[in-house]
Design a protein that fits this description.
This protein is of the alpha/beta class. The protein has nine helices and twelve strands. The strands form two sheets. It has a seven-stranded mixed beta sheet. A five-stranded antiparallel beta sheet has the order 1-2-3-4-5.
């Protein structure tokens, strides 16, 4: 069998993966949902034709979107994850001793159930009903409108700024995030590829920087994401992630994140620095 799945990473570039088997294909109220088993990356979640996560490299994204903010904040008791239906981010969040409650708001219940069935390594916190976790199937944007001075850390684990994820990249949404955070709270959002999505990154850094006194972008290398170079943007009311006291952080068994990666991920190439000026 010689079947290939192609993600159009830009209008001029695609990434192909040869498929062993299609495990699931369906359409939710929000998007096309598929899980395929690939030769190179193993099982892969695909939403609206876009690679979301794979068994082979998911740990990089999920560790970096979770541990960088949670080790920046000195006492992240209450955490909110918006999106993240595959369960990987919340899996990492509940591992932190300081976290007492972790809420997760995911708009697409089909994604959650499909990932629990076909990507159990990633969804283990959802499968095991971790006692710290409260899962809500609903609209993260609406959830933010109703929250005020509630969370220490908010993690926006969203898909691309199209379809159901589009509203998570707006000034109104960031204003609601700011309102929902406690006086020393911080948030992180995945903000695409600094190689292919430069206008978006410049725009987001400006919008977030108008609200948060500390706004930082950091990088990770994720093979299945466009260009392999991915970035995250943090908005913080008080704590600077580059000055975080990570010398005595809780030891966690990780595959990508460590103390040195925490620091070095904020060291940006010149072309990325130029985007943020």
């Amino acid at each position: 069998m010689n079947l290939w799945f192609t993600e159009s990473q830009t209008k001029n570039l695609g990434l192909q993966a040869r498929i062993k088997e299609t495990l699931f294909m369906g359409k939710s109220d929000f998007q096309d949902v598929a899980v395929v088993d690939t030769h190179q990356f193993g099982r892969m979640l695909v939403l609206d034709g876009v690679f979301q996560t794979t068994i082979a490299d998911e740990f990089i994204y999920h560790e970096m979107i979770a541990h960088v903010p949670l080790f920046t904040h000195p006492n992240p008791k209450k955490v909110l994850v918006i999106g993240g239906g595959d369960g990987g981010t919340i899996r990492e969040v509940v591992r932190h001793d300081a976290v007492e409650k972790a809420e997760m708001v995911e708009i697409d219940g089909m994604v959650v159930e499909v990932c629990k069935k076909f990507l159990p390594e990633i969804s283990q916190a959802l499968i095991n009903h971790d006692p710290k976790l409260e899962l809500k199937i609903g609209d993260g944007i609406g959830h933010m409108k109703d929250a005020e001075n509630k969370y220490d850390v908010i993690i926006v684990d969203c898909s691309d700024p199209i379809g159901p994820g589009k509203g998570l990249f707006t000034p109104e949404f960031y204003q609601n995030v700011y309102k929902a955070l406690k006086e020393d709270g911080l948030f992180v959002q995945q903000t695409e590829s600094p190689f292919y999505h430069q206008e978006l990154i410049t725009y987001l850094h400006k919008e977030i920087g108008q609200l948060f006194p500390i706004t930082k972008t950091y990088l990770a290398n994720i093979p299945t994401y466009p260009s392999g170079l991915h970035c995250f943007t943090m908005g913080s009311k008080k704590y600077d992630p580059t000055a975080a006291n990570i010398g005595n952080i809780q030891p966690l068994k990780t595959r990508y994140y460590n103390k040195d990666i925490h620091k070095s991920s904020f060291v940006l190439p010149n072309f990325v620095q130029e985007l943020l000026k």
